[in-house]
Each structure stands twice: as structure tokens, then as C-alpha cells.
Amino acid sequence: MGLLVPYDGSALSKAALIRAAQFDEILEEGVTTITVVPRNNVKYARERGWIGDDDAFDEETVLANLRETIDVIAPDVTTEFVVVGRGAPYGTIANRIRRYARNHDVSIVFIGSENAGRMVGSLSVGSAVSAGGGYDTMIVSQPVPSKVKKLEEALPSEELLEEEVADAT
Asked: The domain 2-168: what is its CATH number?
């Protein structure tokens, strides 16, 4: 069993990663992030802030930068990258996340990505991922500390957010 976080570097995916790390302090199942990256898709990468306006798409740099943002928040997680074709058809990202969850005996998927809207009904990857079955789905809709006292006691999210801001400067 394990906890899975679809990660795209957005504020909500970072909040989902924090929440998964908090749950892991209690459940001790291990956390994995998964990022699906369309190869050489400059527009997609720019929209997510993976590359600057004038930068070319460099897969190694994109993956290294994503891994760095993950490590700042939760250095002990496992990081998985799945690279798909540049023009991957609609639903490919959600399908890859679902497949990973099924194949790796995931117990909870923490969705906080900007794509979570498409996943849950008309939201994003959410509905498709949450429909995968075999695991629970937690939608993280606020990039703020959890109101669940026990989670905050286990791993204070404000400290993680402060570290991220300090490392970004």
C-alpha cells in the first residue's frame, strides 16, 4: 500500500504533497509523486511554469526542476516521471496516473493539481483518476494548512511552506 500524489508544481499539487506527507506520518505507507510530462510540449510546460517564456523545452531540466520542488517539501518521497508523446490525446495523463495507482497497490490518491478539475467531473484529471477504483481519493482544494489538528501536529505544513519560500529565494 502507498500514497500517491499527481504532481505538477502548482500550489494545489504542493498542498496535496504536504497533506500526503502528513498522512504518511500517521499511516507509514510511503508517498510517491507522479508527474506526467508531454515530451517537447513547450506550451504545456510554460502553462505550468516548468520553463520560462523564452526557454526551450529541455526534458532533463524540466524533470530536475520538478524533482527539486518536490524534495524541498518532502525529501523522502519516491518520485516517478512518465513521459508521453507531445500531442498525447485527451485523457492520457489521467490514464497513466490511474494505471500507476492500480499497478502499485495505492491506498489513497491525493489530488491537488490544477488539473484536478478535469479529474473530478468537469474539473480536470480528478474525475478520471478518482473513477479508477481500488483506492480512495482525497481532493485537496485549498493551498493552506490542514484544519485537521492531528495532521498538523504530525507534520506542520507551515514549516514546509516556509522552507519552500526560503529555498525559492
From this structure: 3.40.50.620
Of 141, 145, 93, nearest to 117 (Cα)? 141
Q: Which residues of 133-161 are buried (b: 16+ CB within 10 A; e: fewer)?
A: eebebbbbeebebbeeeebeebbebeebb
Helix (H, G, I), strand (E, B) or coil at 31: strand
Parallel, antiparallel or unpaired: strands 2-6 and 106-111: parallel
Rounded to an integer, what distance in angstroms lies between the CA atom of residue 98 and that of residue 92? Answer: 10
Distance, CA of 165 to CA of 99 (rounded, Å): 33
Taking 80 as the threshold, does the pLDDT of residue 166 lie above it? no
DSSP-assigned beta bridge partners for residue 109:
4, 137
Phi, psi of 5 (to 5 degrees): -125, 110
79/107 Cα distance (integer angstroms): 17
Tell me the mean pLDDT in the region 77-102: 90
Residue count of the chain, please give it: 169
95: cell is: 490514464
Mean pLDDT of the chain: 83
Question: pLDDT of 15-53, one tens digit each?
Answer: 999 999 999 999 999 999 999 999 999 999 999 999 999
Whether 59 has a pLDDT exceeding 80, the answer reads yes
